[in-house]
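Now read the record:
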Amino acid sequence: MSIVITMLFLAIPCACNSKSEKFVELDCKHEVYGVNGQQSLLECIVKSGVDDVTIIGVNWKKMGTDLLNFHNGAMDVSPGFQFAVPGWNKSSNVSLLLTNTKMEDMGEYECEVLTDLGQDKKTVILSVTEFVELDCKQEVYGVNGQQSLLECIVKSGEDDVTIIGVNWKKMGKVLLGYYKGSTDVSPGFQFAVPGWNKSSNVSLLLTNTKMEDMGEYECEVLTDRGHDQKTVILSVIEFVELDCKHEVYGVNGQQSLLECIVKCREDDLTIIGVNWKKMGKDLLGYYKGTTDVSPGFQFAVPGWNKTSNVSLLLTNTKMADMGEYECEVLTDSGQNENTVSLSVIGPCVYAKRPTSAT
């Protein structure tokens, strides 16, 4: 049946063109990167200067083999291929969908369309790659006037992944674009890795963050093993200071106070997160109403409720508690961190002077 449809498809265009001089164009995405084992979309849209274009025939083929044929209501489709539009009914979107892409599907595809206003044909090149993942930190808090880092790392099961393209944009505007050796960068933005040379770290650095930089950023990466895209939300806040007593002397067996106060020029400061840790181990963590505390540690302020005093209290100091503690605070007006060194000493013992013998 496909041979008959193809013959009809090729025979009728001349008659149609003789009836109308109006032009139609087949607008296709020329290069497509599919992922092995996933769906692939070969995009083609019929465009014309008039609205009432009637699709008479559509033919998708690869290396001379028909994959999808439509002509005057008759359809012939090979397994694994279909129109991308569910229940397609002669709409201008004649895109082809591969339902389960395989490595052998890569190659050049030809799409030909016949309408009552003319005909056109285009080619689409499909490259098939293995799976890659773009691992991004989804929420980032930047500080007005400082640098902000939007972290994204390319991950794959293969070691020898080659970066072909990277695209960072915000609200549709390209901020940093790299493709096959050519880079286009807007002022104030750059790769976070100095002298970036197709490494897996495709993080974006804002060199001087402004309040208007807040919003949603989209990162898209294309490699020889596949492609992926993710979004990163940047919140921009004002500067805050974390004022801590840098050196503290505690006594073995007693309480020790590690003092830290949040200071800001804004009066209505809201604490979003507090984190106390020692040697990378979290001791007290608070974030948006949820608190996680290790035994023997607590906020110094009883019933602490997001006050600026984020001091840490060790309820029963031990010799093993001595060392450097790190406090990090996040507010709606900025973030900061500071360190406190705790030295632990033994309790003082006062000997009673013996009375002299009489």
In short: The longest helix spans residues 2-11. Residues 149 and 205 are 5 Å apart (CA to CA). Residues 1-22 have pLDDT under 50 and may be disordered.
